[in-house]
Design a protein that fits this description.
Blueprint: H1 6-19, E1 23-28, H2 35-39, E2 43-48, E3 57-63, H3 66-80, H4 86-99, H5 101-108, H6 114-127, H7 138-148, H8 159-174, H9 177-201, H10 209-232, H11 235-253
Antiparallel strand pairs: 1-3, 2-3
Length: 257
């Protein structure tokens, strides 16, 4: 990658992830590319020792398949969503949407890299409508969707949603950074899948702008959280976090009919 531009180096690593099933060794002779940053979200990067002394940096990249884990978990949860319970699920989910910026900010306060902190703060800023005022907050678009369905926008929170919010904050404040980023990544990725599911299940005449946005937006947010995770720990840590996030998020979407 020494002679590649930054964009070409990133594209090369993305293509490697597509065809490679093992490990990749990257040796830097005279380039200044930030390999760990460019390799995310496709590889977990570990620095290696170059016995020849010829190379400024040597990295071993381990392929991860976090997207498949998210996809499998998301579709698994989607299959359990009971149509008769959609109203109850969404009235409680409102409280989770409202609080989601808190765990993002908790993790942002812990990460040491400014670039990673910027990604997390940017995600929270997006949840708050990119500074466009309360009417553009994602909470507001979710409330408009509930109102258009004639569902309660101010239902009292039940214990499961309060436990979800508290547990998610606890994870982001205490778990190893890579695991905490994985938890948020898993939730964002699964939310995207569930948004697409709900676009099919909910009446077409409703204001579904919230889900139409998240059906595409969360791809970028997932990639950013994967990058934060890969900069902070191992592929195993990230995937453990994704699995934990999926397990936690499922508690909000499963109801007895």
């Amino acid at each position: 990658l020494d002679w590649c531009t930054r964009a070409t180096a990133s594209e090369t690593l993305r293509e490697l992830h597509r065809v490679c099933r093992g490990k990749v060794i990257v040796r830097q002779l005279n380039s200044r590319h930030d390999i760990p940053f460019l390799a995310a979200p496709w590889f977990c990067t570990e620095r290696a020792v170059d016995a020849t002394g010829m190379y400024a940096n040597t990295y071993v990249l381990t392929r991860i398949d976090a997207q498949r884990l998210i996809r499998d978990s998301g579709h698994g949860i989607a299959r359990t969503v009971a149509r008769p319970c959609l109203r109850d699920i969404h009235e409680q989910l409102m409280h989770a949407v409202r609080e989601f910026t808190t765990p993002l900010c908790l993790l942002a306060a812990r990460v040491p890299r400014q670039a990673d902190r910027q990604l997390l703060v940017g995600n929270a800023w997006c949840e708050l409508g990119d500074g466009g005022g309360p009417q553009r907050w994602h909470t507001a678009s979710f409330a408009r969707m509930l109102a258009s369905l004639d569902w309660d926008t101010d239902a009292a929170p039940r214990v499961e949603v309060e436990l979800f919010n508290a547990t998610l904050c606890h994870y982001c404040a205490t778990l190893p950074l890579a695991q905490a980023a994985g938890v948020l990544c898993g939730i964002e990725g699964i939310y995207q899948i569930l948004a697409r599911t709900c676009l099919e299940l909910l009446p077409g005449g409703a204001d579904l702008g919230h889900y139409q946005l998240h059906a595409t937006l969360d791809t970028a947010h997932c990639a950013e959280l994967l990058a934060v995770g890969h900069h902070s720990g191992t592929a195993a840590d990230v995937q453990a976090g994704i699995a934990l996030g999926a397990q936690l998020f499922a508690t909000l979407w499963t109801r007895d009919t």
